[in-house]
Amino acid sequence: MRYYLIVGEASGDLHASHLMKAIKDNDAEAQFRFFGGDNMLAQGGTMVKHYRELAYMGFVPVLLHLPTILKNMKRCKDDIMQWQPDVVILVDYAGFNLKIAKFLREQRDNGLWKGKILYYIAPKLWAWKEYRMKNIKRDVDELFSILPFEKEFFEGKHHYPIHYVGNPTADEVKKFQMGSGKWKVENGKCIALLAGSRRQEIRDNLPAMLEATKDMKDYEVVVAGAPGIEKEYYASFLHGHNVKIVHGETYRLLSRATVALVTSGTATLETCMFNVPQVVCYRTTFPKLTRWAFNHILKVNYISLVNLIADKEVVTELFADCFSVDNIRKELDKILPGKEGREQMLRDYAEVHNRLGDGNAPVNMARWINENVAPIHRCQEAQ
User: Fold this and answer.
1) Inter-helix orientation angle 168-179/361-372, to 10°
2) How far is CA 65 from CA 19, 56, 204, 236, in A?
3) Distance between CA atoms of 83 and 212, rounded to whole angstroms?
4) CATH number of 203's domain
5) What per-residue confidence (pLDDT) applies to 186?
6) Of the ranges 23-32, 41-50, 63-72, 357-366, which one carries the lowest mean pLDDT score?
7) Largest CB tally within 10 Å, which of 42, 113, 209, 298?
């Protein structure tokens, strides 16, 4: 069958690449085209656009790049219709992908396309923009979740069936732990700095992380370089600091880290899966306004995946008006070896691991496609 995948950032590229591999294990004749990244390209197929050309965050950057975004969306729509895939798999990236889903549903209603619209890694509507639920119900054929608490939101609250297939981050960490060595540090003590996957996140968070750890002489401080961000971008931030930076080796770094400072996102869950105590740090441009929005607009109690999955505060979240160098130092001290905060966090991590379960997300989704979509395709081909 023909599979068209659309991702908008580094984590989506990684998750989609594993899904592609699982699909090939079930479908030896699988063909791929995609908006994606280097991990997906390594699995084969044709990359139409790299996610680096798509990843804009925040109102002002999106507004400034609106012509490019619209051009990319048109390119995506035209390419799908020209190639006529049997399955389109949308991976997270809701702002772009839900518009693609609407377009494809309309084309199918008009008899111009006959494929399936599958959504892998459900949009986080439980946090905000819940009104998009009507778009999901109208335009998406099947929704696949990687967070166990999402079933209650989609099925319990909105009566929309969803497949929890397991968590790919948990899968990827387990595979790494089974097959790779650890990152070597000089004195056995290491602080990992994971400052985000986008330039804006790195610019906002890395300076404070570096300042908060500069006097911790007993620890080696190592920055995890984000995929797709060139080494030169980090140079101005690291100048004057005795730290290392590694690219493409975040898992090896986390496998050896003592503690970590982490910008909210998938990295918080990765750090949890490696049992590395962490402080979540997220600077915002308008901290008081952000706090007000969090308290009055967002419909969640936490910003980190670890706390959302546990449904309680496992890791401290320093964001908006709580974000400061002094607060980072204070919270980091609480989770150093020998401190009670560290032991409590590790106990809470065990509950997070348990809630995620042992399901292999890409394998489970690929199996579902093989059992539910492939037979329909074979019947159409036979007609």
Assistant:
1) 120
2) 30, 8, 20, 25
3) 51
4) 3.40.50.2000
5) 57
6) 63-72
7) 209
The candidate with the shortest Cα–Cα distance to 216, out of 259, 263, 272, is: 259
CB within 8 Å of 176: residues ≥ 6 apart: 251, 255
128/86: higher pLDDT: 86
Instruction: Tell me, yes or no, whether 268 and 287 share the same domain.
Output: yes
Token pair 């880290």 in the structure block, residue: 257
> What does the pLDDT look like over 49-59, one tens digit per residue?
998 877 544 44
What tokens does 305 get? 């995946």
Per-residue pLDDT of 341-373, as tens digits, reads 999 999 999 999 999 988 899 999 999 999 999
The residue segments making up the domain with residue 371 are 2-166+359-382
Q: Tell the burial category of 332 from Cβ atoms under 10 Å away from its Cβ (0-12, 13-18, 19+).
A: buried
Angstrom CA distances, 142 to 94, 154, 299, 327, 368, stand at: 15, 12, 24, 43, 10
* Domain shared by 39 and 124, yes or no: yes
Q: In this predicted model, what pLDDT tens digit does every residue of 287-344 receive, in sequence order?
A: 778 788 777 667 778 989 999 999 999 999 999 899 999 999 999 999 999 999 999 9
Q: How far apart are CA 60 and CA 71, in angstroms?
A: 18
Containing 281, the helix (H) or strand (E) segment is strand 278-282
